[in-house]
């Protein structure tokens, strides 16, 4: 049994992780951590330091806030506890500094996107990119999303640009119609990226490729938070055999 502690267990993602880990037959939630407390059938501590002092667990899963995640990892990694992190906002430098503090071969695993489908969408886009002169990314998110374009859309555009040895011939040239600036999207490494914000969506993305007489669309839809759980469980199962810093779910998707 893998003993799991869920940091941010009262939050939207944390609650979903608690349910997913509880439903898996090879792991258990031994405690939660959340300063807001939580109504749970396991002990809930106010801080990660308190949890490390009072409970024993193999893996910390962290879905908290950008301003607290580094502090949580700075407690667990020197204590030799593997960490599976979804909280956004950690720079590469910070991740590397934190992983250097790990003891006893502890692993720091960070995935900017835990949906297996989004990772595959990027891999398929990489495979298609050399064969299509045109490529555009359209991402669709709920209206409350703060940033645009999404991190996944930016990463997809970068992957497409890296995978092809040419520049698109229709790279988002600006419209000539006054007042309609931006109609061709934002250019990320020469790839037009369009951001839709609307009720009804959680997180979707379509990558559209064009060539002579043919087009190819690769689409991924994430309809609710359970879509992240296969990736989170894969991370929990995989970190025990790893050490050091690992970024990206693709590392565990054979
Ligand atoms: P949320 O606000 O619903 O939950 C965050 C929880 O963390 C809250 O309950 C809060 O009380 C708790 N918290 C605050 N400080 C804490 C501390 N020091 N220790 C432990 N818990 C603490 O947020 P959410 O929607 O669940 O998202 C959490 C994070 O996950 C965000 O950064 C979000 O961007 C990220 N996220 C990542 C992915 C991914 O695939 N990587 C997917 C969805 C969300």
UniProtKB/TrEMBL annotation:
Primary site of residence: cytoplasm
Name assigned to this protein: 4-hydroxy-tetrahydrodipicolinate reductase
Residue span(s) of domain Dihydrodipicolinate reductase N-terminal: 2-114
Keywords: Amino-acid biosynthesis, Cytoplasm, Diaminopimelate biosynthesis, Lysine biosynthesis, NAD, NADP, Oxidoreductase
Coiled coil: none
Stated role: Catalyzes the conversion of 4-hydroxy-tetrahydrodipicolinate (HTPA) to tetrahydrodipicolinate.
Pathway annotation from the record: Amino-acid biosynthesis; L-lysine biosynthesis via DAP pathway; (S)-tetrahydrodipicolinate from L-aspartate: step 4/4
EC identifiers of the protein: 1.17.1.8
Family under the similarity heading: Belongs to the DapB family.
PROSITE patterns: DAPB
Gene: dapB
Taxonomic path: Bacteria, Bacillati, Actinomycetota, Coriobacteriia, Eggerthellales
Domain Dihydrodipicolinate reductase C-terminal: 117-252
Active-site feature positions: 141 (proton donor/acceptor), 145 (proton donor)
Alphabetized InterPro entries for the sequence: DapB_C (IPR022663), DapB_N (IPR000846), DapB_N_CS (IPR022664), DHDPR_bac (IPR023940), NAD(P)-bd_dom_sf (IPR036291)
Organism: Raoultibacter timonensis
Binding-site residues, NADP(+): 54
Binding residues annotated for NAD(+), in chain numbering: 8-13, 53, 86-88, 111-114
Quaternary structure and partners: Homotetramer.
UniProt-listed SUPFAM superfamilies: Glyceraldehyde-3-phosphate dehydrogenase-like, C-terminal domain, NAD(P)-binding Rossmann-fold domains
Enzyme class: oxidoreductase
Gene3D superfamilies noted in UniProt: Dihydrodipicolinate Reductase, domain 2, NAD(P)-binding Rossmann-like Domain
Positions annotated to bind (S)-2,3,4,5-tetrahydrodipicolinate: 142, 151-152
Catalytic reaction list: (S)-2,3,4,5-tetrahydrodipicolinate + NAD(+) + H2O = (2S,4S)-4-hydroxy-2,3,4,5-tetrahydrodipicolinate + NADH + H(+); (S)-2,3,4,5-tetrahydrodipicolinate + NADP(+) + H2O = (2S,4S)-4-hydroxy-2,3,4,5-tetrahydrodipicolinate + NADPH + H(+)
């Amino acid at each position: 049994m893998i003993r799991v502690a869920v940091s941010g267990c009262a939050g939207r993602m944390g609650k979903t992780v608690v349910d997913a880990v509880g439903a898996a037959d090879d792991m258990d939630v031994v405690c939660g951590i959340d300063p807001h407390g939580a109504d749970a059938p396991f002990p809930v501590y106010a801080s990660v330091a308190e949890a490390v002092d009072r409970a024993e667990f193999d893996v910390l899963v962290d879905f908290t806030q950008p301003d607290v995640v580094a502090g949580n990892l700075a407690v667990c990694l020197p204590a030799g506890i593997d960490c599976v992190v979804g909280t956004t906002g950690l720079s590469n430098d910070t991740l590397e500094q934190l992983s250097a503090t790990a003891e006893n071969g502890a692993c720091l695993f960070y995935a900017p996107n835990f949906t297996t489908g989004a990772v595959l969408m990027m891999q398929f886009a990489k495979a298609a990119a050399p064969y299509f002169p045109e490529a555009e990314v359209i991402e669709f998110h709920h209206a409350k999303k703060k940033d645009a374009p999404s991190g996944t859309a930016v990463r997809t555009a970068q992957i497409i640009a890296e995978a092809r040895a040419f520049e698109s011939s229709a790279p988002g040239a600006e419209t000539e119609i006054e007042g309609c600036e931006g109609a061709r999207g934002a250019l990320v490494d020469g790839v037009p990226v369009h951001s839709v914000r609307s009720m009804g969506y959680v997180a979707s993305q379509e990558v559209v490729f064009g060539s002579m007489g043919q087009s190819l669309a690769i689409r991924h839809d994430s309809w609710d938070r359970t879509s992240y759980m296969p990736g989170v469980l894969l991370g929990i199962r995989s970190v025990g055999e790893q050490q050091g810093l690992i970024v990206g779910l693709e590392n565990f998707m054979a």
